[in-house]
Amino acid sequence: MQIKKLLAVALAAAMTLSTLSTTTLTQPKKASAATFTNLNQKQMVTAMGAGWNLGNQLEAANNGTPSETAWGNPTISANLIKAVKNAGFSTIRVPVSYLSKIGSNSNYTIDSAWLNRVKEVVDMCIANNLYVIINMHGDGYNSVQGGWLLCNGSDQTTIRNKYKACWKQIANKFKNYDQHVVFESMNEEFDGTYGTPNTTYYANINKLNQIFVDTVRQTGGNNAKRWLMIPGWNTNIEYTAGNYGFSLPTDNYRDSSISSSEKRIMISVHYYDPWGFCGEESTTATQWGSKATNSSKVDSWGDESYMKTNFEKMYNKFSSQGYPVVIGEYGAIDKSSIDSRNTACRADFATKVCTYAKKYGMVPVWWDNGDTNKYGFALFNRYTAAVTQSAIIKAITTVYPKSSSSSSSIDTSKTYMLKNVNSGMYLDVSGAKAVNGTNVLQYTASKAKNNNTWKFVSNGNGYYYIYSQLGNGSTFLLDVANNSSANGANIGIWSNTNCNAQLYKIVKNSDGSYNIYTKSSGNKSCIEVVNALTTKGANVQQWVYNGHNCQKWYLEAVN
C-alpha cells in the first residue's frame, strides 16, 4: 500500500518558530534505561495501549537517500511527541528507511549521523514514557529507489548478509534500553504483486524474520529479553493467519530468565479494509459503518462484521497462543471536504478497530502521514503540534482512556519504601535527623527504617502529603524548598506548613512505577535523583518531567 506513504504534505510554510518555542521541552539527561521490566503478553498489550505512527518522516527518501523532511514534513520536534502523549496515545511507531545510508563496504556500516538521529527521535518518545516501535521500512519495497530487502531479489545470500549486519548495528544502538523499545523486522514485505503469495518468496521472508530474531537476541543486553515484531506477507491478515506459508521463527537465544511458557514474539499486520473507504483517493466510498447515511457511498465489502472476523482470525492463530498481535497501521483518509459525514464515519472506523483490537488482545496503531489536507491521514499538525482530528482521537481514547491524566490511588493504610527505578536506591532522610530542613537523598537499604519509610495521606483533592516516619511519623513531610517552582529546587523534610510545597500528585506508569509531581511547580516537575546518578548519597531535587527512570519510583509496601 505504498500510496499512503507518498501522499504530499502541503502544510503552510509560513508557520512561525515562535509558536513552538513557547512550549519547548527539556530533554532527558539520559534516555537509555538499564532497568528492564519483564512484561508478559497481557501486561505488554495493556501497556502499549493505543498507538500512533510517525509516518512519512524517517522513512521518507529522495532518490534513495533518507531524509525526515523529504516528503514535506518539518523536522520532528519534542513538542509533537509530547502532544501525541498528551492526546492519550501510549505507543509511537517510528518507521525508518536506511537505503543509501548503508555503506557499500563489506560490513554494511550504517551512517552514524542517521542512526544517531533515529536515536534522538526514540529518546523523545522515551522521555514521554511512550513505547516505541522501531522498524526497517522502505528498504523492502520494490517500488522505492534503492530498495534492496527484496524477498524476490536474485541474490538472497547478499540480502541476508546485509540485513543481518544492519540489524546488528541497530540492535546494539538500543541494547540497553528498557522494555519500552520494540523492534519490528520489516514493513509490508512482498514481491510487489497482489494476490496469492509466491511460496518461494514467502519462504525468503520467513528466513529474514529468523535472521532478525537471532541477530537481535545475540547482541545481548536487554535485547535478549525485549519483545520483537515480525510480519507475514505484506502484513496482510489473511496471508498471515491463513495457510499461505507463514512460519513463526524460533527464539533460541532468548534470555533464560524468561519463563518457557511465555513468548517474546509479536505478529505485525496492517488493516486498511475496505481500501475504497480507507485509502482510495476518490469520491466514491466516503462513508462506513453505523454512521453511514447513504448506502451508495459505502463500499460493497469490508464492513464491521468483516473486521471482526479478521481480528478473530488473528486471535485464534496467534494471540490465544501467546503471540500478541500489533495492528502496526490502520486508518482512513480525510474525505470530509467531499462528504460531511466522512469525519463521523472515520471516527466510527477507529472506534471499531480499537474495540475489536482490545477484545482480541491486539495493539492498534493509527497511520499518520502528516498530511492534514484532503486525503490526508494526519491527526496532528506537525508544525504546531496541534490536534487536527479531535473526533478520531476521542474515538480512540474512549476505548483506550488516558491512564496518566490524574493521580493514582494509593493505599494510605500502608507505609512504603520509595525505590528509584534508575539507581535501585531508596528515598532517605539524611542522617535520620527529625529536624526541619534535613536533606533528602537516595541511599542503600537492606530493610525498612524510619528514615527510609514514608506514608501517603490524601488531602481529598487528588493530592497527597508524604510523611516521613521519623519522630512520631506524622510531623515531617516531604518538602520542596521555599515552595519553589524552579528546576533544581531541593527536596527535604519540614513540618506541615499548609502550602503547595508539601502536596504531590502521584501518577502510575505502565511498568508499575510512579512519578511524583510537585504541586509547587504546577504539576510540571517531578521528584528525581540529580543527574540520574546511581551513587549512594546522591541528592534528590525537583525537575521538569522528562520521562527518565531517575524520575520514577517503585512503592514497596512494608506493612
Automatic annotation (TrEMBL):
CDD domains: beta-trefoil_Ricin-like. Keywords: Carbohydrate metabolism, Cellulose degradation, Glycosidase, Hydrolase, Polysaccharide degradation, Signal. The keyword Methyltransferase does not apply. Residues 64-371 form the Glycoside hydrolase family domain. Residues 1-21 form the signal peptide. Residues 413-494, 501-557 form the Ricin B lectin domain. Pfam families: Cellulase, RicinB_lectin_2. Transmembrane segments: none annotated. Belongs to the glycosyl hydrolase 5 (cellulase A) family. This is Cellulase family glycosylhydrolase.
